[in-house]
Amino acid sequence: MDHQTSQVTGRPYSQKKEDGYIIREFSQDTPSFEFVWHRDKEDRWVECTHDTDWLFQLDNDIPRRLQKDKLFIPKETYHRLIKGTGDLVVKIWQKH
To answer: For residues 38 and 79, what is the distance between their CA atoms, to the nearest angstrom?
Structure first.
């Protein structure tokens, strides 16, 4: 299992690979300005592992509460997280 902390990656999360997907953890202690608009080089499916008030926003769309349903993020589409309370843990599957 490969585990990378936010201190190592310089990103606002830590992550580990497990059973074909990535488990990514976002700390409530991370400043809101760290959660910037960005895009990824591959399609992704994201699933929240617990109930949360964190929000997800795709470009040209309204923010939506993250839920336990799988969320599809098309490659090269701008998106961002909006910080809520408590830590956030998500599972990510991506196309290679």
So the answer is: 6
